[in-house]
Amino acid sequence: MTFQEEILQGIPANLPSKALYDATINHAPKRKEILSAEEKILALRNALRYFEPQHHETLIPEFKEELEKYGRIYMYRFRPKYRMYARDINEYPGKSLQAKAIQMMIQNNLDYAVAQHPHELITYGGNGAVFSNWAQYLLTMKYLGEMTDEQTLVMYSGHPMGLFPSHKNAPRVVVTNGMMIPNYSKPDDWEKFNALGVTQYGQMTAGSYMYIGPQGIVHGTTITVLNGFRKIDKEPKGNLFVTSGLGGMSGAQPKAGTIAGCITVCAEVNPKITKIRHSQGWIHEVIEDLDLLVDRVKRAQANKEIVSIGYLGNVVDVWEKFDQENVTIDLGSDQTSLHNPWAGGYYPAGISFEESNQMMADQPELFKEKVQETLRRHAIAINKHTAKGTYFFDYGNAFLLEASRAGADVMNPNPTLGREFKYPSYVQDIMGPMCFDYGFGPFRWVCASNNPEDLQKTDAIACEILEEMIKTSPVEIQQQMKDNIQWIRSAQENKLVVGSQARILYADAEGRTNIAKAFNDAIAAGKIGPVVLGRDHHDVSGTDSPYRETSNIYDGSRFTADMAIHNVIGDSFRGATWVSIHNGGGVGWGEVINGGFGMLLDGTLEAEQRLKSMLFWDVNNGISRRSWARNEGAVFAIKRAMEAEPLLKVTLPNLVDDNLLN
């Protein structure tokens, strides 16, 4: 069968041969035993409904074995034999160019070079799934290959519910992930209902088909590290940034540190992912001995080197060793997947990686004890360094939240609303007031031709637009503009592409609209192929997350999720090609609601109208909420937006004299 024929076949009528387990691939850890005997039968019944009854006798023992061995039914037998990667959009079957764009983005999320656990359909974060099983993938790709621009595909947490009649201005796909009744949104609820096959954790851009590899977070991390050093009045060169995590998202940290120009030490316990990041050039060196690490860092500090070092081991040992040896840490953070602490997101010190994985599955309560014990040690070591002058920030991975739940010394002795912890979230001190409040967030695009030349052309177009805009931009956003111009100028030389030919930069509504219109004009002129627009959910208005994206909201509304819901509803009727709304993300199941979109530019006038309408709303919805919370930068930004668009009229806050309240 050709690639197109295989897509259109969907779930094959004849069973393919049973797949061999490939030990060379990075696999998801075994999930803990959580289903009762009756629920295990229900999980099997749920999985078998994808297949004709004549296959059930063959599949039952196989699916039962997967459930017992891995804690999930992944349906490995149905994993496609073709190579998984983002092809030229024209290689996909179908009647709708928009649907073909979505097929391309789904395959990019599952590309071996992109996905963390590709055979388990997990893109990043340990549990950020595109689908729960391979039957869902096959059926979804088939539906996309069949649909017209008069239909919408409805996705229920990885399950393709089906094609429904709609119209050409409606989204082609509507995605939800993990939208639980609130009282059933605890971590164990995810374990249970995911094992049953009825919901999944979409992370942010995994389950919304918009992940572009670690480049997506390299840019945000670069901005964070640059501004972290600015905050402490130090040059990055020769100074040290210590953190941990080299997975799908966190693997961006050493690359970002190198671009920012500092010394980076990033610890990781997984040998496979450490090797991958080293082979990709995202870390320069790998060291496994703490004494050698100390010597290497001291030499780098003395010589003012720009170098990234991966330490194969637990980061707690690094913090403790550097304290003993008086190694100065200038910036400190952590980006392990602490939204998922009991299932591989964070590993205990003093226990090997293999032993930890075994304990996680067989002795989950003991594993939890060891993780919390390590979090307490972690906090003690950090506190010793901050007493010497280290600037530590929570990188939105729920480190402080989980450490506090473990009884670690991370609470603010004089807490105020929004400042309960001893250390700030990076959004509170850096990204929120400097970027999000002004509307700057992670705008991204993918060249649907998969042609590197198209990416070079779009880079040049974006750079030209930004350089023209900065000439008249207000002083309040000059630094943001300069950082992004520098970023896009050096994007090619930093070799950031992993998977699809994609790019990211931080832009406000005006910048996003101007760049997108220029792309659409270039497509119309035949200079480049179609382009898919998107963004990280980690943005101005896409996500309500009280300990990350909205942690610098101090009016008491940071625990509400109206903004994210309004965002995705508004995007859906303003022209998005697909929209998504998720429970869970980088800070954990039940801790965040986030929405995203994808939009295909095809060079038409209709695409121009859609991009102008949707991108303006997508950003200014969040700025409006932030301005109502009395955030000074957001008040400035929304007033500027109202001046530019007469139809925009936003309720502005009146400020109260503190002396009257006191």
Automatic annotation (TrEMBL):
One of the entry's Gene Ontology molecular-function terms is:
urocanate hydratase activity
Localized where?
Cytoplasm
Q: Which residues form the Urocanase Rossmann-like domain?
A: 213-430
Q: What cellular component GO annotations does this protein have?
A: cytoplasm
Q: Main EC class of this protein? A: lyase
Q: Where does NAD(+) bind?
A: 125-126, 203, 268, 395, 586
Mainly resides where?
Answer: cytoplasm
| Cofactor section | NAD(+)
Q: Which InterPro entries match?
A: Urocanase, Urocanase-like, Urocanase_C, Urocanase_central_sf, Urocanase_CS, Urocanase_N, Urocanase_Rossmann-like, Urocanase_sf
Q: What is its EC number?
A: 4.2.1.49
Q: What is this protein called?
A: Urocanate hydratase
